[in-house]
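Worked Example 4.2. Consider the chain below.
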Amino acid sequence: MAERIHHLLDRWLAEAPARPFIHLPDGRSLSFADLGALTDTAEAELGALDVRPGDRVLVVAENCPEHAALILACSRVGAWSCGVNARMAPAEIDAFVGKADARVVFFTAAASRSAAAHAQRFAAVDSALPGMQHGAVLQDAQPEAGALRDTVASLIFTSGTTGQPKGVMLTHDALIHFARVSGASRALGPQDRSYAFVPMTHIFGLGTVLISSLLAGAQLVMRPQFDPDDLLDALVHHGVSQLQGPPALFSRLLAHLQERGIQRPEAPALRYLYTGAGPLDLALKQRVEAAFGQALHHGYGLSEYAGSVHLTRLGEQRPDTSAGYAVAEAEVRVTDPATGEPLPLGERGELWIRGRGLMPGYFRDPAATAAVMREGGWYASGDLGEMHADGALFVVGRLKEMIIRSGFNVYPAEVETALNTHPSVQRSAVVGRTVEDGNEEIVAFVELRPGAALDADAMQSHLRELLAPYKRPSHIVALSELPTNTNGKVLKRTLKDQALGLTT
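Applying the procedure from the previous section yields the following structure tokens:
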């Protein structure tokens, strides 16, 4: 049984080295043996750079085989891989280097112009890995000691959409366990090909896509970025059977299909659609299911748990936006945000989580760890949800994003759901804005469908049929595109800042 993530590759090197694993945009395919050779090269280079067990290796990356090889090579030498998206700003990258206390920084220069630009700033030199560069060894970096040194596989930095990013420590056991859970939830096997554009710098791309595929022997149609035309081509010509991504991916894809006049994409091998890493809107779900003629599966997960804790079931097409049912060895409790006491079925509260996949903490940040951990090994997620009698979980928003208007609690997701049923709206995001009396008003930002124009009066009339007066926005603002981070999550902090500048 695999104990470290590189053991997943070792199995296929022994059993089926010639089997294809990664398919690239230029038409090349890499077998498990090819990935093994890249991992050998990466391992030798880490040794030459004096990377030690417990060191952090930062990888400024967009998806490519060399990044996967570095992740596995770090596992071999006992170092911790720490991927950060190359499209981050220079100040963000510099901050991540410091937060990770990195021993060395690699850049996927050939796969990403952004990574190449960061490499130039660091005066990086060519790596032994094709298309990679690395900076100088950072001599002051201190390797981790103690039990964590040998159990942690990777650091994933939280996105920072609602606060300062923190380094989540993910263990080998948690990642491998989730790979089993994820693979079983979609019957993943060697016959499958996943469209792998979700960044491996995020838990979605690392756990759900890379590690799960390694465990199952499934193949990856790997891409550094999402391109809707490339996806449509891959569905037709490259046997893509599994498509996973955040809701923003599917929103962009639907807009592209509308612009191209495509009613039903040709996808002869596609059998599994999944969205996660963000709240799912019912209107979006229905439109995706209509376009592909099959269920859009959903789940609830987070970096702090190395993947999903709830998933919908294969073969079940729910009519709602439930995140599905608890996965093996995971527990979710709905609690009173003020007292932490469990709430009855159907009541909304903060979601507490515990189980095999839970992080051992935030890297070298005991205060941040203590702020979210509760007695009994529970993690207080800050997410709001409710549990139904059948065990299905519904996530309704973030505790910090809840708007209090005239003494009533308003959940942005509820308002967004109503807005997204308007025929002009592609997607929306709702934030609160404090006004003079300390009350909050609701500001809605909408991204319109291709060719649509904002008619705020008509939209307000539409909302009157769907929402109580206290839930309706005071302002509706059209944007060409909602701001998102590199993982597709809407940047609510950016929108809150924009809302402050609106005239009353």
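The chain is about 30% helix and 25% strand. The domain at 173-331 is CATH 3.40.50.12780 (Rossmann fold). Compare this with Example 4.1 before moving on.
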